[in-house]
């Protein structure tokens, strides 16, 4: 087939294309390790009587040839796809905005590839005003596509403590990562919206005293949202999940469709799960879909995202009307029960059997890359992740037919079981629906005034916080004693552990002070 050189001019090594293709196929199925592979080749060739001049020459030369071979293969695939797209009949200008973008249609043909995605709507749901941004209210009961999002803080990249300079040039390939400029712009927008709300020009509803209420645009009371926010670390932007002292890139956030196809990725550089990363991914997605496409959005804290959207007005209300928020199935049980009634995808019409956990499956598939990404350069890390996503795309594309067949059979089996259960119970379906509506209305009603119970609950919370603060202080003291006694075997892990313990101590102490300050003098005396 030919040879591929390690340099464009005067190469000292050329590698057979079949060998490069074999290594490329191998490295997307296990942890990429050019060093180990080249060392094995050198040992094998040495046994056959062949040796290389110099030290580590094969690794540097082979790595260069392999890297640019992968770049060439990716560019060739993109060029072929572009030529095919050009050969397709072009849509008329007035119809271009009625379909998802070519990028999305290529990312997931099942979600965005068809031109008939509106046919699933009932006739009354097809009633759209003259302006495509104004959606009739009765369309909110269905969604046209379902996406999910999550962050992962294990795919980190360490800082370069020694200041070593390596060869890490940008790679000329199409990337799935949202540009840094877009992320920075959304961070500024989020800060401006929150500042405008705090200054009084935005609409922020705050309950008075012990009153509970349902804010405008929301479906559950403020007390329920507060409970969900306190239950999840992802809802606290100040919570440090990765140390920025030791890591330049702290993780990834991904946006996937319901078929586990990656739509976009965002590179995280903060210690916590900041809200502007979510907004950047949503903004990128919104610009690629028609103005009347309705979206089901599943996230670990979907209730908090909708609350922030309604509260701070990050996007227009016309966009908010097209989004139906839900929580991922595995995280739903950590939410308050009224929140589960509204946001659980199994209890919400339109989400079907989508679980919103596609990101967890993606993180599992990327798990072999954790050790490699820690020591990679900035551009090399993005390149490896893009390569792996392309491999997962090819793998899922070849299994779409089997996936659909398996899911269809499972769906029919579950439907038969539900129909059999309804027949056995002997209840009218209309009566059951009416009872469910009544239950939702009752259990999402704002709580009445409960001054005494609330005070007792607050005192118990403060006492529990005091115990947690003491426990974190004891953990910090134990770590410091180990350090003084020179019993630390892994200094990097020690730094991460003590930084995490101190961050938790500071957060809990701050929460304890704020809760104490909120109590009156008479109540404080009861502590």
Automatic annotation (TrEMBL):
InterPro entries for the chain: KDZ (IPR040521)
Xref: Pfam families: KDZ
Protein's recorded name: CxC1-like cysteine cluster associated with KDZ transposases domain-containing protein
Organism: Paxillus involutus ATCC 200175
